[in-house]
Design brief:
Elements (H helix, E strand, L loop, with lengths): L1 H16 L12 E7 L5 H13 L5 E7 L4 H13 L4 E4 L8 H9 L4 E5 L12 E4 L2 H15 L7 E7 L5 H14 L5 E8 L4 H15 L5 E4 L2 H13 L9 E6 L2 H8 L5 E4 L5 H12 L7 E3 L4 E3 L3 H4 L6
Parallel strand pairs: 1-2, 1-3, 3-4, 4-5, 5-11, 6-7, 6-8, 8-9, 9-10
Antiparallel strand pairs: 10-12
Helix pairs in contact: 2-10, 5-6, 7-8
This protein binds beta-D-fucofuranose.
Length: 320
C-alpha cells in the first residue's frame, strides 16, 4: 500500500513537471520558442496572428522571433531557444535544406521540434516530432488543373510566365513540381519564363516588369506561387497598358483577401487556397508533444479553389 502511495506521489510530481495536472488543467505554462519566416505576405501576417492567438497565456509562454526571410536568423533563434531550455520549439523553415546540425542540437537537448507550414529535407526524420501544414504539390496541381479547364477550346501555344516563391523553399519547389505535372501532359502549354519573386509584392512587380520587357505581348498566362506576387504583377501589367485577367490570365495561390478583391475587380482569374489559420491545431500538437503523447508525423490543413465568379459572394466570409 505504502509503495503505491509513493508511486502515485512520484507520478503526480512528474506530471506537474511536464506542465499538466491530473485533471488536465495547466499547472505551469508550456514555454514555446517559435521562429517565423518573416512578414513577407498577407498569408504570413494571418499565420502569425493565428499562432500568437493560440499560443497565449496562461497556458503558453511564447517566445516569438521573426527571421526576416533569412535562414541564418532562424538558426540563431533556434540556438537561443535551446540555450533558454524552452519546452518545445516550433518553426517554419524558410528553406528546405541546411537544418541537420541545429536540429541535432535540439535533439541532444531533448527539446521536441514541431515544423509548421514548410517542410525540411533531413536524413533522419526523427529530428522533428511532427509537421503541420499544406500539401504544396497538390496546390500546384490545382493551379495547373484550373488552367487546363480554363483553356478548353483555346489554340496553342499558351505561353506561361511563372513567379516562383523563395528559392529553395518547400512551397516554391513543390508548387512548381505540381503545376508542371499537370501542364506537361498538354503540348499547348509552355513555360517561357520562370523566376523568383521571393513571395513579396515588390519583387513580384519587379520580375513581372522584366518578363514584360523581354517577352513583349507574348505572354498568355501568369502563374504566381502566391497572391502577393500576383498582386504586384497586376500593377506591372496595368502599367504596361495591358488588362490583367483578360490579356494575361492569372492564377495564384493562398486565397488572401487581396486576391478576392482583385478577382472581384476582374484582374485575377483564380486563387488556390492555402490556409494559414492553423494556430489552434498547432497548440494541440504542442500540448501533446510536450506531454509525451504520440502525434501523427504529418498533419494537413484542408483547402479549396476559388474562381473570379465566386469572389463577390466569398469575400465577406474570408477570415484572412
Ligand atoms: O504561400 C506565401 C508565404 O509557406 C505557405 O509563404 C507559405 C507561403 C505562402 O510567403 O504567401
Amino acid at each position: 500500500m505504502r509503495k503505491i502511495v509513493m508511486m502515485c506521489a512520484a507520478m503526480l510530481a512528474l506530471s506537474a513537471c511536464s506542465g499538466s495536472a491530473p485533471d488536465g488543467s495547466a499547472s505551469k505554462p508550456i514555454t514555446v520558442g517559435f521562429s517565423q519566416v518573416g512578414a513577407e505576405s498577407e498569408w504570413r501576417s494571418a499565420n502569425t496572428a493565428s499562432v500568437k492567438a493560440a499560443l497565449a497565456p496562461p497556458e503558453f509562454r511564447l517566445k516569438f522571433s521573426d527571421a526576416q526571410q533569412k535562414q541564418e536568423n532562424q538558426i540563431k533563434a533556434l540556438r537561443s531557444f535551446i540555450a533558454q531550455r524552452v519546452d518545445v520549439i516550433a518553426f517554419s523553415p524558410v528553406v528546405e535544406s541546411g537544418w541537420e546540425t541545429v536540429l541535432r542540437e535540439a535533439s541532444a537537448a531533448r527539446i521536441p521540434v514541431v515544423l509548421t507550414d514548410r517542410a525540411v529535407k533531413v536524413s533522419d526524420d526523427s529530428l522533428y516530432a511532427t509537421f503541420i501544414g499544406s500539401d504544396f504539390v497538390e496546390e500546384g496541381r490545382k493551379a495547373g488543373r484550373w488552367l487546363v479547364e480554363d483553356s478548353k477550346g483555346k489554340a496553342g501555344p499558351i505561353r506561361i510566365v511563372e513567379l516562383q516563391g523563395t528559392v529553395g523553399s518547400a512551397p516554391a519547389i513543390d508548387r512548381m513540381k505540381g503545376f508542371r505535372e499537370i501542364i506537361d501532359a498538354d503540348k499547348r502549354f509552355a513555360v517561357v519564363r520562370s523566376q523568383s519573386g521571393d513571395f513579396t509584392r515588390a519583387k513580384g512587380k519587379e520580375v513581372m516588369e522584366a518578363f514584360l520587357k523581354s517577352q513583349g505581348r507574348d505572354i498568355d498566362v501568369l502563374f504566381a506561387h502566391n497572391d502577393d506576387m500576383a498582386i504586384g504583377a497586376i500593377q506591372a501589367i496595368e502599367e504596361a497598358g495591358l488588362k490583367p485577367g483578360q490579356d494575361i490570365r492569372i492564377v495564384s495561390i493562398d486565397g488572401v483577401r487581396g486576391a478576392f478583391e482583385a478577382m472581384k475587380a476582374g484582374k485575377l482569374n483564380a486563387t488556390i487556397e492555402c490556409n494559414p489559420l492553423f494556430g489552434e491545431q498547432l497548440a494541440q500538437l504542442i500540448r501533446d508533444v510536450s506531454a509525451g503523447r504520440p502525434v501523427p508525423k504529418r498533419v494537413e490543413v484542408e483547402e479549396g479553389v476559388f474562381t473570379a465568379d465566386q469572389a463577390a459572394a466569398e469575400l465577406p466570409k474570408r477570415k484572412y
